[in-house]
Amino acid sequence: MMLTRAIPLWIAVIGGMVMLVSAFVKPIEGLGENFADAFNVIAAIASVLGAGSLLKANLSSISRRDAGWGYAVLVLFTFIITLVFGLAKIGVHPSHDFPTAAFSGKQETPDTPFGWLYEYAMVPLTSTMFALLAFYVASAAFRAFRAKNLEAGLLLGTAFIVLLGRTFAGVVLTGWLPDWASGLHQSAHPAWRGSKLDGRGRPVMNMVDRLNALDRRWVFLLMGLAVAVPILWIGITGDTFPETPTPAAAAVFKAVEDQPEGTRVLVAFDYDPASAGELQPMATALLHQCAQRKLKIVCIALWPLGGNMAQQTIAEVIRADYPDMREGVDFVNLGFQAGNEGVMKVVLTDFKKAFPVDARGQATADLPILQGVQTVKDFPLLLNVSAGYPGSKEWVQYVVSSSEGKVKMVAGCTGVQSPQMYPYYPGQLAGILGAIKGAAEYESLVNQSIGGDVPPKYREAQRRMAPQLFGHLLMVALIVAGNTLFFMGRKGARA
């Protein structure tokens, strides 16, 4: 038993140390790449084991007729359908290099059954799942966020600053501050416990107790209205709140604007549909500005679904609004490449070795857009849109820090990841976009520079700021109301 736990632990420790040391010690750099390849092999085996575990658990639930066994049937059905479409490559078109081989194309393209499932099933489901979190956060804001002591009070104060700072309300409240101060821009018990009881043993509840015991569905209703009403208002009027760009967002815009026409830029799509609500407007605006500046755009992805996000963004921006741009000459999507930091280390020495073919299956050595590209250092600007690992932090640590100042990098991150990245600005990062607020600021700069009528797809971040504003204001109000009821109830209990 001890060996079964110790051996995997030692393998993980040795592998991690080798990967860490190989990033700084040149002679063993190849050994780190070998370990990265071994990790991919282990991950493939783990996927098979995970599939077996999924089948076993759900088949057992169905055979025993456990509560909710119908959901197990649905899980197995969708799993098998997706697996068959993906592995059998049903409906996949032949690749450019092998036109006679039916299985040579990629199954992720939108016109295949697998791509259709991704576009119209996975994307909406993941977006819905994360959208539901807002309702439970609002409920927790009313019921659980209590300033019971100094530490909790400081935490609540910080929450107010963060919630308001990510909306237009933060601009209004802090607009009077001088430039040097711009940086400032446990479960509750049921309320009836301990209450007096009437003759039938039921709690006698006053108004404070009734509000404390308020059904959470009322809170859900308030959150629904706080989100829905601004969306409807924007949809009818077309108006959005004005944005005041922060220096970090303005720096992203300037980094792209400063590139001469024809410059190659590398855009890394390191996110998936779960984070598209925050990050997709950034990616759209980045490609919009790059195309407007007539830069040559090379898209890559280190996340499995990042290549699909790149393809979707290319279709919405370049193919729709810049039809004169030629694939392989003015833009290209190199797709997903497994290996995480291993890929980053390879592109430092041989870019085309890390990405031997593009998303269409065409050899990168034959692409005009990549003629003269030897390493990642041949890209003066790296634009990274990241939801986590591997992403912006790893690009800074492995590529920017090793590029001898030849690669300038800007990043767009989720709200969760942004605090990890701000320490790198303005040193290793030339600019940074934090969450949907940063996307809205950058979007407004791009739209102002281009002028004219702005299509809705290029105002998506600004449109999403209104629901965020009212949602954040509602959560602040719920926290204040909950704490007011808490202190009133404690005062009444002492009396």
What does this structure look like?
With 495 residues, the protein is an alpha/beta fold. It is 56% helix and 7% strand. It is built from 17 helices and 6 strands. It has helices spanning 2-22, 29-64, 69-87, 113-143, 150-165, 168-174, 207-212, 216-237, 247-257, 276-292, 306-321, 341-347, 351-354, 392-398, 418-421, 435-450, 460-494; strands spanning 264-270, 296-301, 331-336, 381-386, 408-413, 429-434. It has a 6-stranded parallel β-sheet with strand order 3-2-1-4-5-6, sandwiched between helices. Helix 10 crosses helix 11 (306-321) and helix 16 (435-450) runs antiparallel to helix 17 (460-494). The chain is globular, with a radius of gyration of 26 Å. The model is unreliable at 182-195 (pLDDT under 50).
Short description:
The protein is an alpha/beta fold and 495 residues long.
Radius of gyration: 26 Å
Work out the strand percent: 5-15%
- What's the end-to-end separation, in Å? 60 Å
Name the helicity range.
Answer: 55-70%
Number of helices: 17
Structural class: alpha/beta
- DSSP E strands, number: 6
Average pLDDT, rounded to a whole number, is 81
Low-confidence stretches: 182-195
The rough form would be described as globular
SSE ordering: HHHHHHHHHEHEHEHHEHEHEHH
> Can you summarize the main beta sheet?
6 strands, parallel
The largest beta-sheet arranges its strands as: 3-2-1-4-5-6
